[in-house]
Amino acid sequence: MSVHGLTLGDVLGEHRRGRPLGLAVVDADVRLTYPGLDERVNRLANALAADGVAPGERVLWLGRNSFRILELLLAAARLGAICCPANRRQSAGELTFVLDDLRPAVVVFEESEAAGQARARTVAKARWVAAGEEYEAYAAAGAPSEPAVTVDPGDPVLALYTAAFDGRPAAALLSHTALIAHTMTLLHVRRMEDGFTYLNSGPLFHVGTMMFCLAAFQLGGTNVFTPAYDPEEVCRLIEAERCTHAFLFGPMIDRLVEANAGGAHDLSSLRFASHSPAWDAMITVDDSPWGASKMGGYGQTEVGGMLTFLGLAPGGRGPAGRPSPLVHVRILDPAGTEVPPGETGEICARGATIFSGYWNRPERNAAKTAGGWHHTGDLGRREPDGTITFIGPGLRMIKSANENIYPAEVERALREHEAVADAAVIGVPDPAWGQSVKAIVVLKDGASLTPEQVVAHVRSRIASYKKPRHVEFADAIPKKGHTPDYDALDAAYGGGGHPGT
Amino acid sequence: MSVHGLTLGDVLGEHRRGRPLGLAVVDADVRLTYPGLDERVNRLANALAADGVAPGERVLWLGRNSFRILELLLAAARLGAICCPANRRQSAGELTFVLDDLRPAVVVFEESEAAGQARARTVAKARWVAAGEEYEAYAAAGAPSEPAVTVDPGDPVLALYTAAFDGRPAAALLSHTALIAHTMTLLHVRRMEDGFTYLNSGPLFHVGTMMFCLAAFQLGGTNVFTPAYDPEEVCRLIEAERCTHAFLFGPMIDRLVEANAGGAHDLSSLRFASHSPAWDAMITVDDSPWGASKMGGYGQTEVGGMLTFLGLAPGGRGPAGRPSPLVHVRILDPAGTEVPPGETGEICARGATIFSGYWNRPERNAAKTAGGWHHTGDLGRREPDGTITFIGPGLRMIKSANENIYPAEVERALREHEAVADAAVIGVPDPAWGQSVKAIVVLKDGASLTPEQVVAHVRSRIASYKKPRHVEFADAIPKKGHTPDYDALDAAYGGGGHPGT
């Protein structure tokens, strides 16, 4: 056992001693102090160990939000195992894929048609435990002593499915060290302090909520859980538990304001960004440089959450701000060479918060860590003042006259035109230059533009060699999720000759 | 190269890119941006490498405060080597001990009689470089490219001599990871932010100043250096550089207030704890829960600086507060078993900020890490509310003018006098300095010495601040086993005011 080690289980052990009366979790009628949570976690860990959950084994949660996700994660932490909270609203086929991919030793699930079908179809041999009474009995049956397992804090403990770049998601593995390091960056950037009470109002299978849940835990604060986003219930919980923070964004806030229109609930404990006059009147607006409104930056599940923060570069030119103090960033070209400030390349990084690779994806992991740098797959640049701009995902590249052109960058420039509703960019074969750039543009209702105007606009924004040589107008851009479906675009508009294809 | 690595050299590399105009250091007529510091560090590193400074080799600084200590540390960091800034005010014998113990490859030194004698006596084969023109030419001669050395962030990079428990100091080794982790705890606890400008007004061979120097560096802030504590010059620097923080305590502040009695200097940029009405009127008093006044807690060089912080347990019962978020603490009995809350035991800890052992002390290191816990050698307890109380050193220590003085070290010097049969040293309360040193001396039969001769003898052997201010002669030293019975000595000779009592 190294004197330098700190695992999530160790954090819980410290809180049991250091915060004997501290309220760790609130969930419906469950209220647990840190000693109470520690005892439940030990019992659950010993029950899991009896079901074969050894170091490196996986446990899967298929259910709505619950403090039991944190409990399961901490029990896995005590065993050197990996906890995966997955999205239960996936189809039976998607759930089967997750089960076959992850091969969990134990699955805790809420009944659903899809879960039942996936259970019948999967080749994974898991012990299935139904959330509710069965789980409670299961979790209470283990011995209360701490499992005698030596856990390496560099080993993964959390798996989150993400990044369906090739049409199938993969589970990003995050180690104890990465999660604790990421928490330290949040504590620093957001000036988190004693009394932090977090309402887990977003899904815990997403890093956006999970990272704050873990920060509240590491701080010795309180995590409040609600099974799903119900604006009435969220108002009630904020008032009852004096929640100081919550996972909320635009449309969620609008529904909250509507639900509390009569002012029935006192939401003044909540410190959040300004949104609308009605919202601002209900809560405590935090417009400090480290407040919620300045949370912006650049991140992804694979870096534990956030890699850069706007709040670390007040007044800087790049909207992504500066890297957190525990990482460093390089903007690299496809050959792995650093590009100069002002030029676009792939955002690459190194540091304590970076993930440990995807579960069961050795080839992709090798590509993600080429040259000893984590390759985010996203495009960005260093501004002359040293701050970072996130350009967009770097899925597809165009090679014209030996220059690398990233569709996301050209698309961003196109969308900045007031007459453009949407746009996508592909490479078309070019006998002279290998490829040339073709833009497919959707105009706003009633707007009109000539191809020449489109080209002139792009040329005014980015380097000339990136401007489209061909422009076609269309009614819509085919999409895969939120990103253009480039295969469909290539087929419809004559694309081809992409490097690497 | 792991994607998780972050060394001090990496931090500098990020700042070179991220803060192209950021002022890194100010020292007399030297003003360096981060790119400027990065270039100097690379040149110095390449020069050191040519002198055999390979991974694990040591470089020693024997001089007053200077930005060149940070530069030397960062150059060592780029090479995987270890930098030791040592106290140049030590005697020739003490300096010889350090040289023989550390065996540095390169020594940068300011001329002094003691340094000259130590250089003549030591068996260490080092390249000696005189601070000043010789050093400047030496540091400028290397190539400006970054050395191609892969550095493990878990390897030591800083060595600080401390802990003369057995009569001889030892060099505590701190890794990149430990120093960066400790900085993260400071950023969190002290809410450090952009614009942090630190005046290095304390000695950089002491962790108390070094930890803030490193925090300012990690933040991308500015470090201002002054060769020694001159109140007039400190006032001038605070005003000229708009320093926001500085290393200061009671008697230093009194001298500053005296020097600025006429209000000649505007010290309002300095944010510091309240001290006296005159002081409070000169500076910006920071009485926030994370302000300088709440810096208290418990620490030692071996944990990178601070292990626990009062500011993390506002209103808590234990004056040492709570552990930093990157460590966990156990109070253990001599058998390594945890003692219950309220009972005294040894403060033991695990976590990222813990040191890598003492240089060249394998037996002591084994004892320090028994059972996988770092043994601080200090006594403490958990209060019922979970907070920590520091009781005192497991071995007796004297604290005078913020310096740790170990009786064993002074006693060893006393016993080396041919007329001394036995001796013991206690601390007596001192209104100005907390404590001062009192020696109780047993002379050999027929020998005679004056108190002045005793003091002069000690002063010839060890640093002046450790010499006795009071000497009493006695017939015998009361003992507990082989060691002096300090409680009996305190009672008989007016001892008291020991830290923790």
TrEMBL record, chains A, B:
Q: Where is the AMP-binding enzyme C-terminal domain?
A: 409-481
Query: One of this protein's Pfam families, by short name?
Result: AMP-binding
Q: Which SUPFAM superfamilies match?
A: Acetyl-CoA synthetase-like
| Domain AMP-dependent synthetase/ligase: from-to ranges | 23-359
Q: What is this protein called?
A: AMP-binding protein
Q: Which organism is it from?
A: Actinoallomurus spadix
